[in-house]
Design a protein that fits this description.
Elements (H helix, E strand, L loop, with lengths): L2 H14 L7 H25 L13 E6 L6 H8 L17 E7 L2 E7 L14 H10 L2 E7 L6 H10 L2 E3 L6 E5 L5 E5 L7 H10 L5 E5 L5 H9 L3 E3 L1 E6 L6 H11 L5 E2 L8 H11 L2 E6 L12 E4 L4 H8 L7 E7 L8 E3 L9 E7 L2
Parallel strand pairs: 1-3, 1-4, 4-10, 5-9, 7-8, 10-11, 12-16
Antiparallel strand pairs: 2-3, 6-8, 12-13, 14-15, 14-16
Helix pairs in contact: 1-2, 2-6, 2-7, 6-7
The structure holds guanosine-5'-diphosphate and magnesium ion.
GO molecular function: GTP binding; GTPase activity
InterPro entries: Beta-grasp_dom_sf, DRG, G_OBG, GTP-bd, GTP-binding_2, GTP1-OBG_CS, P-loop_NTPase, Small_GTP-bd
Protein name: Small GTP-binding protein
């Protein structure tokens, strides 16, 4: 029997089974089996044809994809924020290709990608959905764009991303698993777990493990455990933008804000350029970038030309991005800013920097 059919059968079995305390474990096991089969299926398909988005090269300090339904104003926004041009029109599906453009902000060059609208069924390939979703998966940030009329469409978009294996604003599950030769499945944890150990073991077994040590470092649910075991999930940060606020009155806007409050969206009007500076700041922040100002031995700091690095970068990363000999010849660095206890503190290569820190490298000659 082929895998797809087996998945269907299992899904039907779940539907047939009444959910109660007695069947709970059985259902969980069926779900794990389905997740495992889906993983097998994906791997098989991947071998058949590599679904890579063609022609999109990462450039700049970060890559951000604009994801949203058709006609919400993605292209108009993209045209205002970047140096590139994309077609804007009154009818749906004006953007048939993927357009890259550069947004310059706070000294960073952020590559934005204007994309066709994402529609229901995209994760199954509808409307070039797989191509769009592969690009989204490879970006540093997903910018979800809606307008005031399509707020309820957020669920659809999130569902398509989820189906495609993209997890937004979620951390990677903090688990490790080691195969071994004997001893069965062993589960240890560093925190109290809500799931019971037997269920965890059953799921791990469904994914083909016979002997393994599982170390769990967060209180996870069954879904996150299966995500981890499936191994092909991508964890991407996302922000939400609601466009066309010029078309909503105060009451309508308040209703929308209520619905979306857990997202803290940025409300904008591309047409009237409302709130775009705030949006740029949010994009910068959520792209995981930071600015480091270099203090030369003599002369002034150039605040217009920060070094742009990924958040969490160290003094060593600064050295590497400046000159390949700097790590070898490094003596110490002096740092002013949020990452140190007092101004001008001496630190080593492993010191983690923070946004807007000032760094002076002291290098052996
Ligand atoms: N009123 C208003 N219309 C907008 C705004 N942004 C875009 N539009 C209009 O919405 C339509 C669709 O825009 P487009 O950028 O092509 O949407 P896309 O399909 O998401 O790329 C066009 O007619 C735009 O002029 C806005 O902020 N306010
Ligand atoms: Mg468009």
């Amino acid at each position: 029997m082929d895998i797809e059919q087996r998945i269907k059968e299992l899904e039907e079995e779940i539907k047939r089974t009444q959910y109660n305390k007695a069947t709970e474990k059985h259902i969980l096991r069926l779900k794990a089996r389905i997740a495992y089969l889906k993983k097998e299926l994906e791997e098989k398909k991947k071998k058949q044809k590599a679904q890579r988005a063609k022609g999109i090269k990462k450039s700049g300090d970060a890559m951000v994809s604009l994801i949203g339904p058709p006609s919400v104003g993605k292209s108009m926004l993209f045209n205002i924020l970047t140096n590139a041009k994309s077609t804007v029109a009154d009818y749906a599906f004006t953007t048939l290709e993927i357009h890259p453009g550069i947004l310059k902000h706070k000294g960073a060059e952020i590559q934005l990608l204007d994309m066709p609208g994402l529609i229901e069924g995209a994760s199954y390939g509808k409307g070039n959905g797989k191509e769009i979703l592969s690009v989204a998966r490879n970006s540093d940030l997903i910018m979800l764009v809606l307008d005031v009329y399509t707020v309820d469409y957020l669920e659809v978009i999130l569902n398509e991303l989820h189906n495609f294996g993209i997890r937004v604003n979620e951390k990677e599950p903090n688990i490790s698993i080691k195969k071994k030769d004997r001893g069965g499945i062993n589960v240890a944890s560093t925190v109290p777990l809500s799931m019971d150990i037997e269920s965890i073991k059953a799921i791990v077994r469904e994914f083909g493990f016979v002997n393994a040590d599982v170390l769990i470092k967060e209180d996870l649910n069954a879904e996150r455990l299966m995500d981890f075991l499936s191994g092909n999930r991508t964890y991407v940060p996302a922000i939400l933008v609601v466009n066309k606020i010029d078309l909503a009155d105060e009451e309508f806007l308040r209703e929308i804000k209520g619905k979306l409050h857990s997202w803290s969206p940025v409300f904008i009007s591309a047409k009237y350029r409302t709130n775009l500076e705030k949006l740029k700041d949010e994009i910068f922040k959520a792209s995981g970038l930071m600015r480091i100002y270099l203090k030369p031995q003599s002369g002034k700091i150039d605040y217009d030309a920060p070094l742009i690095l990924k958040k969490g970068s160290t003094v060593e990363d600064v050295c590497k991005s400046l000159h390949r000999d700097f790590v070898r010849k490094f003596r110490y660095a002096m740092v002013w800013g949020k990452s140190v206890k007092f101004p001008g503190q001496h630190v080593g290569l492993e010191h983690k920097l923070m946004d807007e820190d000032i760094v002076r490298l002291v290098i052996r000659r």
